[in-house]
UniProtKB/TrEMBL annotation:
The keyword Hydrolase applies. SUPFAM superfamilies: Composite domain of metallo-dependent hydrolases, Metallo-dependent hydrolases. This is Amidohydrolase family protein. Keywords: Hydrolase.
Amino acid sequence: MSPRYITADWIYPVTSPRIFQGVIVIEGERITGITSRDLIDTDLLEYHKGILIPGFINSHCHLELSHLKGRIPTGTGLLEFIKGVVSLREVSQDEIDAAIEEADAYMWSKGIQAVGDICNKPDTFSVKRRSKIKYYNFVEMFDFLQESRTDELTRGYKDAFALAPEPKSAVPHAPYSVSPGLFAQINQLNSGKVTVSIHNQELKAEEDLFVSGGGDFYSFYSRFGMNLDHFQHTGQSSIYYGLKHMDPEHRTLFVHNTLTLQKEVEDAHEWNSNVFWATCANANLYIENKLPDYFAFINTGALMTIGTDSLSSNWQLSILEEMKTITKYQSRILFDTLLQWATINGARALGMDDQLGSLEIGKQPGIILLNYNPDEDNLADQKVEVRRLI
Ligand SMILES: [Zn+2]
């Protein structure tokens, strides 16, 4: 197969400075050269208007919830949101399967190369085995802090874990829903170099539960027949409970972090040098209408990644739309910074940076065209779109 010579106004390798009118040489799907236009015969060049970037990495998704698109109202807060998800069970398996298939194809068309995907069930596994997208399967477990019932409450998740395609790990859902005993079981299930994700500091009730032993979780859990009488609050925010019980030997991805403070980011970095943070801006706006303090992360050199969360809490599964939303609410974050979050950092978080996340010789990262002029356009207010070239 003869190589393709793809060029645009700028190429953004991500791990090195951008190149004006650069050329990417591609054989099959692999990059075999990065050069400039004057070195290539004009007739061979494939010209595009805009910028070329590597495929996006979606570090947090729940593909299996795709059938819930548009079914849950926005702005209710997380606890009402969960009640909404739980009450919507009467959907046929055919409908669930079709929505998963459609969402997978949509993400590919929107330039997404790999996804860190939360699974509670095996519903997505057959689509993933066929997909062009690379998936990291985070098989999520929770026991609502009911340690006496952990085995009964997590049997289905352990079955899903056994069936999940590689790469995979067992992961805790969130500090407020995983007992110390279940954390220990999860640590045992994970061997070798894996990534573990956890939903973190997403709502005030979570902080209330751990800091003061009060708040809305008591009534929330009692509604589901669980009681928290045995729960002993720690006096510290929820992330410290996670740090105490998770294995610092694993790459760890904290998700949402809408209430996380700079000191907590620093303490997590102290705990483990392989810590990543996922922001899901549209989902945060959808559910709690609050975004993280991004500068608490930027100021500490944190490795930020971008996730879409699920279609139950987002209008679409598009990393570009997440970048637009972050730019709209926090215009001081530069495009180059967001692009790192959206590509190489996510690839590192999923352990896929040997092939994905940057335009480098030898990698097969996907080639994405954005109709965007980084020196003139504002990402937030113009109609920038993704076109997948490779
Ligand atoms: Zn999530």
